[in-house]
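Sequence design from tokenized structure. All designs in this work follow the same two-part layout: the structure record, then the generated sequence. An example of the structure record is given first.
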């Protein structure tokens, strides 16, 4: 996930950038409204979530939120020093998805980020059919086809492959995959289980599972589907 962080206090911004990096988030940092506006205009397609300080030296997080929502349907979380109802309600009315009051623990912020992102993605309506080389995913049917022949996947295999399909060309770490996936049977999904399911998907979808070209391993980083 790539996060746009706008915070005028450079000490706070530096600390947040470091902490988010430890959680394997990529962070783009701005210290004022002007530089953030430029990023929103030129790079908003690269951003997955925004963290906006409400009070900036040359503007307001409210204005940035409004600009983001006009250009891209992505979640926004406000960082605010104010804990009064007026500011909270105003922020949510502007389209913000959540807010967190300073000072806060980084674990609390990360938890809010994960919760908002999951909730947000559940409301995004994906394309009915996603095509990746010779593979087609019909999201309405919940079925996967290879050269028009249906490939039978378990619920967890399907969910895992859909995560890849929704992040074409993006390297996903094992931690990111484990964070996004859930086992519909209610069983705990650990790192070893993920390895097994990647192997099973390759066996079912790849022409040569020993030399995969669909679900590629990116050494030292994770996995990637597509370019």
């Amino acid at each position: 996930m790539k996060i746009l962080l706008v915070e005028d206090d450079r000490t706070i911004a530096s600390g947040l950038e470091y902490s988010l990096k430890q959680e394997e988030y990529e962070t783009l940092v701005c210290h004022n409204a002007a530089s953030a506006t430029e990023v929103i205009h030129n790079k908003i397609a690269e951003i997955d979530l925004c963290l906006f300080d409400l009070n900036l030296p040359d503007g307001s997080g409210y204005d940035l939120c409004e600009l983001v929502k006009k250009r891209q349907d992505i979640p926004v979380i406000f960082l605010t020093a104010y804990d009064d109802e007026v500011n909270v309600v105003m922020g949510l009315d502007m389209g913000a998805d959540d807010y967190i009051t300073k000072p806060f623990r980084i674990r609390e912020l990360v938890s809010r980020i994960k919760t908002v992102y999951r909730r947000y993605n559940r409301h995004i309506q994906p394309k009915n059919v996603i095509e990746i080389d010779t593979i087609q995913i019909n999201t309405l049917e919940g079925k996967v086809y290879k050269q028009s022949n249906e490939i039978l996947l378990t619920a967890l295999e399907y969910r895992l492959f859909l995560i890849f399909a929704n992040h074409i060309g993006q390297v996903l770490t094992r931690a990111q995959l484990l964070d996004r996936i859930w086992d519909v049977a209610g069983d705990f999904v650990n790192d070893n289980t993920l390895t097994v399911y990647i192997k099973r998907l390759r066996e079912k979808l790849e022409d040569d599972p020993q030399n995969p070209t669909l679900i590629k391993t990116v050494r030292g980083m994770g996995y990637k589907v597509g370019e």
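Residues 49 and 180 are 15 Å apart (CA to CA). We note this feature because it recurs in several other targets discussed in the main text.
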